[in-house]
Specification:
single chain; mainly beta; two-stranded antiparallel ribbon
């Protein structure tokens, strides 16, 4: 009861357009305050990914850390000091149509502490650079929008609990943004 140790090792490899990585976490036992890990010792594969990047195209399979817009409808990140890792295990792809349009899409299941949740998240993010289209290099003017859907099967024994707490099994979220800078 007088000793706690949170340990992390992250290994990344990159060669040209290809990259891959893994992260292992060990709580031997967890420091006080990491309530989700207080059930004793835990050693597990926290994240993994393989990625291919081209000039205009990118695809990642594994644990996704990303944000749509300012993060109101989708933001996945890791903060070890707070004990937060809400990555999305799945696939993400992005394509840039020159400097004018960027389209991103993702699909996967979110992390819930050290495990993955039984829900599925899918989404898309679109960014159109009006400034580049009208060839105005002095300004930054973009029109952006995002859509995210979360689906969680609440059938069986969970259906009554879901109704009691107002859990929506199929949640749709959308956001629109207009950015202007000079």
């Amino acid at each position: 009861d007088h000793f706690g140790s949170n340990n992390y090792i992250k290994v990344d490899y990159a060669n040209g357009r290809f990259s891959a990585g893994i992260q292992m976490n060990a709580f031997l036992p967890a420091l006080v305050g990491y309530d989700a890990y207080m059930d004793g010792y835990k050693f597990y594969l926290a994240s993994k990914y393989i990625q291919w990047r081209d000039k205009n195209f990118e695809v990642l399979v594994g644990d996704i850390f990303d944000q749509y817009g300012n993060g109101l409808i989708f933001r996945s990140f890791e903060d070890r000091q707070l004990g937060v890792n809400n990555s999305l295990e799945g696939v993400r792809a992005a394509y840039n149509f020159g400097r004018y349009v960027t389209l991103k899409g993702m699909y996967g299941r979110p992390r819930l502490y050290t495990e993955y949740s039984k829900s599925w998240v899918r989404g898309a993010d679109l960014s159109i650079s009006i400034a580049d289209i009208i060839k105005a290099p002095v300004i930054n003017f973009t029109l952006e929008g995002s859509y995210v859907n979360r689906y969680q099967n609440v059938g069986g024994n969970n259906a009554q609990t879901a109704d009691m707490y107002g859990i929506v099994p199929n949640l749709n979220m959308a956001s629109g943004r207009l950015n202007f800078g000079w």
